[in-house]
Amino acid sequence: MIFGFKSVQQAAALPFNDEDGRLRVLVVSSRRRGRWVIPKGWPRKHESLFDTAAREAAEEAGVGGVIGQDCIGRYGYEKRMRRGYPVACETFVFPLLVSHQDEDWPERKRRRRHWCDLADAVRLVDDADLARLLNRHLAEDGTALRALTDRHGPTNRLTCTQQLNLMHFPTGTQHHE
Question: What pLDDT is attached to residue 34?
């Protein structure tokens, strides 16, 4: 519950990489106003929130890799629907250790993507609750994100299209605890 009334759930991915001890995150532009956000969206029927997060990262940012099953935070925001009415959304964020980035992805023509460090992401994102969540991970030196890197190291190199195709079948979904 946010904003004092019932909210709907969304899932978001926080795409990141940790090369040579340098933690970087990926932000994408929103479709309508071009604000910097992280990939997020509505879960499909029978889809887990972490699978939703992985799918949205592939669709909105053209990235894939290992998605963590543990939520690393959540934030609320008010989404303005196309018909103009507001919807309170509670967004659950899952880390995505990026193993590949495609040059062609479903929303390539409608979005930009930008790799930056956590401190820059805190300044770039437009949503105050998302900025606070990112700032918390910055204060913790990205510990929750680095834990996923430590557990999984190098990941396989499926293209985003291959990953999206696999996600339609429960046995093909790539996710890790």
Answer: 92
By CB neighbour count within 10 A (0-12 exposed, 13-18 middle, 19+ buried), where does 116 fall? Answer: middle
Q: What domains are there in the chain, each with its CATH number? A: 8-120+133-140+149-168 (3.90.79.10)
Helices (H), 5-80: 49-61
pLDDT of residue 84: 82
Query: What token pair was written down for 118?
Result: 């956590």
> pTM value?
0.82
Following CA atoms 102, 137, 134, 108 in sequence, which dihedral angle do they give, to the nearest 10 degrees?
0
Pick from 2, 177, 174, 173: nearest CA to 87: 2
What local confidence, expressed as pLDDT, does residue 153 receive?
Answer: 60
The parts of the chain modelled with pLDDT lower than 50 are 1-3, 154-177
CA distance 8 to 1: 8
Cα 32 to its chain centre, rounded Å, is 18
